[in-house]
Amino acid sequence: MYKILHKEKLNDVVELMVVHAPHVARKCEPGQFIILRVGDDGERIPLTIADYDRKKETITIIYQIVGYSTKALSLLNEGDEITDFVGPLGEPTKLHASKHVIGVAGGVGSAPLYPQLRALAQMGVEVDVIIGGREAQYVLWADEFRKFCKNVYITTDNGSLGRKGFVTQVLADLIEQGEEIDEVIAIGPVPMMKAVVAVTKPHNIKTSVSLNPIMIDGTGMCGCCRVTVDGKIKFACVDGPDFDGLQVDFDELMARQRMFKEEEHQMDEKANRMCNLMGGVQ
Fold first, then answer.
1. Local confidence band at 280 (pLDDT 50, 70, 90 cut-offs)
2. For 236-253, what is the mean pLDDT?
3. Alpha helices by DSSP H, the chain
4. pLDDT of residue 256
5. DSSP label at 44?
6. Pairing mode, strands 242-244 and 206-210
7. SS3 of 197, please?
8. Which residues contact 256 (CB under 8 A, 6 or more apart)?
């Protein structure tokens, strides 16, 4: 069992947990993920590793409360234990000794982007980050990024923090101004990553994306997380989750993401009933 050492509410739908997981903390690298399970009958949930501490043997995860399983996870508190916490899974991010890298994060995409940009900064790479959210409360970890990023650009849909608009507008402006960019790392909702690639591709700027297709076992056996990259079938759990964004078939990925919308709706109703019985999400 994996004890929850710290729990923090980041906004009305996103929470952070620090979990004691010595085997994962000992070997994980930026870009990798874990699969956890709450209860013996729980669903397997893949979550990217947001941070790790090898000395304290801890892993930090950030999750959005969107359905039955994340609501079950949210009902746990400090001192409680998570049934399964498997990892590290996936391929570590391939970090390049570039001069200038810009990270682009949407929503909880800040979590997996954070260790990647931090590692690049430790390598001597100049890093900037563009963080987007619907409104101010959904802009995650801006202060953490400021510890090693030269510039932190913030956008919100409603203008409540930073620039009003989308992350792609800031990125397009930087390119238009002649900013020399060796690589862009985009992590967030699939439509956002697709939009980032639409900005970088005409300029042939190397663009890495972290894909989050439907995933079950995390070992490539089930085949649910298949994606098409450069016309070839890949599996996000073992070949990724990071891929060359310029080669990803985003339209196919988005179509596959919508395959189980009805089932997800049914599970969400079940989650709401569960939370009502438990007195609401803690």
1. low
2. 91
3. 22-27, 68-74, 110-122, 142-145, 167-176, 190-200, 236-239, 250-257, 261-278
4. 79
5. P
6. antiparallel
7. helix
8. 213, 214
Is cis: bond before 22, omega within 30 of 0?
no
* Angle between helical axes of 167-176 and 190-200 (0-180°, round to 10): 10
> What is the C-alpha to C-alpha distance for residues 82 and 103, in angstroms, rounded to an integer?
31
Record the tokens describing residue 1, joined without a space: 């069992």
What is the Cα–Cα distance from 241 to 134, expressed in whole angstroms? 25
In sequence order, which residues have a C-beta less than 8 Å from that of residue 206 and are 6 or more positions away?
182, 183, 184, 200, 244, 246
Q: What is the pLDDT of residues 127-165, one digit of tens each?
A: 999 999 999 999 999 999 999 999 999 999 999 999 999
CA neighbor of 18 nearest in space, from 62, 55, 65, 72: 62
Q: Which two three-digit tokens encode residue 178?
A: 């002649």
Which residues, at least 6 apart from 4, have a Cβ–Cβ distance to it below 8 Å? 17, 18, 19, 76, 77, 78, 79, 80, 81, 82
pLDDT value at residue 185: 96
Per-residue pLDDT band for 226 (boundaries 50, 70, 90) equals confident
Q: Which residues pair with 81 in a beta bridge?
A: 3
**With 50 as the cut, is the pLDDT of residue 282 above it?**
no
Q: Answer yes or no: are the C-beta atoms of 185 and 104 closer than 8 Å.
A: yes
Q: Which of 133, 77, 126 is nearest to 110 (CA)?
A: 133
Position 74 pLDDT exceeds 50: yes
